[in-house]
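CHAIN AND CONFORMATION:
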Amino acid sequence: MKIVIVTLDTFSTKMAGPAIRVWEMAGMLAREHDVTVLTFAEAGRTSPNFSLEATKVADFESDLGTPDVVIIQGYLVHTFPWLGERDFKLVVDLYDPFHLESLGVEKHRPMPDREHALQHAINELSAQIRIGDFFLCASETQRSLWIGHLAALGRVNPRTYDADGSLWSLIDLAPFGIAGPTPTQDRHAIKGTIPGISADDHLLIWGGGIYNWFDPLTVISAVGIAAETDPTIRLLFLGAKHPNPDVPQMAMAAHSRRHAEELGLTGTHVFFLDDWVEYGDRHNYLLDADIGVTAHFTDIETHFSFRTRVLDYLWTGLPIITSDGDFFGDLVESRGLGRTVPVGDEQAMAQAILEVLDNPDDMRARVVEASRDFSWESTLAPLLAYCRDPYYAADRIDRLAPGEMVAPRPTLRSLVSKTWESTQRAGIRHTAAKAARYLRR
């Protein structure tokens, strides 16, 4: 098959989650197909297995060509509504519920801006859901969210239901994956390299950006408390600056720096790495750490999230400390991969840090075992199967243009059937009155 994956993210030596996902997806699909990645951002990497090209709005249609399958990610369909009108099969990657993410991203902005951003996200997702042939999401919880959206827009209908009552042929699970077996460290990128962090220190690593829906403040406070017992404890925030210039620094990043300064921890127990780590070098940072840490708030974004940074902790065998209440909190708790703590509880977080540092070895073995469930080959299996034998959605013949929703007109047979059922159930007088109201309407 000829497959094109379309994204808005940056491809360089430093990549964030959306680009990493597309990169790995393209590599897996290229084992069997002719794959091209088109991005509206920087295309600064090359692969021997697939093509990676930058495109522009004016050139996109011609650059896309005539593939068999198109896979899209991000804000695309509102700009290019014709994506639902071509002969190719359209796969929509919904692993990131960015309308819920928008609530956190825009949290500190004026209310009109927040409302506009949310509506923009909802409009985009609704446009995608109206035209997709096959959808991907990251978890069972997300699948329930998206089935609700599909149902609200008429995509759960007699044709899709008759084709597959379970709807797995319409929307399946394809979570983020892990690059491979536990890597080998080539150099010490943190311990003995970053001033203030020695080879003998106990290092906690926060892998990834500091976004508004995360709670780094509790972790910083907890490190200050735990350091009173163990002065060798250090915390490093790995990616304070996003590699995509279109992603602004969020308010929580500034709050975190200020909080560490106020507690007198900056440069002694808490460190911020301003630049984003290169994708091919990140294992050297992670393998210097003793614990992978993350924390979040109790909100709707958390409930439907799939924290991709935790997969790097699994990949490098790091015991994990996380807030409870999300997918990976449940995984850590159920499989003994570290500790989960109540949201916002800095004392519990501090205690968890000390406990994990006291006996990490058994946890490391369980983390490595759990990581095998998240290989890209496993997580992308539904997409790989679909692309071997792609199909249009069962209701494609009735698909409307994006944004257009009309009520179906009842057939004469259905009206007669409903009239008979109403007469048997409620009597002729009630049915006659109901019919009169219907005709007036």
